[in-house]
Amino acid sequence: MNSVSPDELLKNHGLKNTKQRQLVLEELAKTKSALSQPELEKTLGKVMDRVTLYRILSSFEEKGIVHSVLDLNGTTNYASCSKACTEGHHHDQHLHFNCTNCQKIYCLDVKIPNIKMPLGFKAININTTASGICSNCS
Asked: CB under 8 Å to 124, separation ≥6 — which residues?
């Protein structure tokens, strides 16, 4: 997670500071693994509806606050971006690890090497996921 406060993070990315946005950022900061919208709904469902949560996550991804990664079941999970990410430009391409036991997804500090795309192709996002047993389950 960014070491910047939620207030500053929202301001730096041109988003209005709302209680709902603050709560989502706080939930993401509490865990070392990526969280799915259903997981966030379990803890935040009493203070915001599903549509509001979806819109917040979408705007956070668009602004470069979070990035998404699919788990083994095809569910989108969200994790905090690095400070280098900006609107429309995610600069923290790294390896994700999906534990086959606990189903959690972790961002690993393993950078994906620069991949030269064939002529005419422009990669917007490269996502690589390894699966196996995490350190908590082994």
From this structure: none
Domains of the chain, by residue range, sit at 6-132
pLDDT per residue over 9-21, tens digit each? 999 999 999 999 9
pTM for the full model? 0.84
Whole-angstrom distance, CA of residue 19 vs CA of residue 136: 32
Q: In what order do the strands lie in the sheet with 94-99?
A: 66-70, 76-80, 33-36, 105-111, 94-99, 128-132
What is the average pLDDT across 49-74? 94
The b/e string for 104-119 (b: 16+ C-beta within 10 A; e otherwise) is bbbbeeeeeeeeeeee
CATH class assigned to 6-132: mainly alpha
Can you read off the two tokens belonging to residue 124? 């917007």
Full 3-state SS string of 84-110: CCECCECCCCEEEEEECCCCCEEEEEE
pLDDT mean across residues, the chain: 90
Question: Which stretches of the chain are DSSP H helices?
Answer: 6-12, 19-30, 37-44, 50-63
Q: What angle do CA 12, 27, 130 make, to 5 degrees?
A: 95
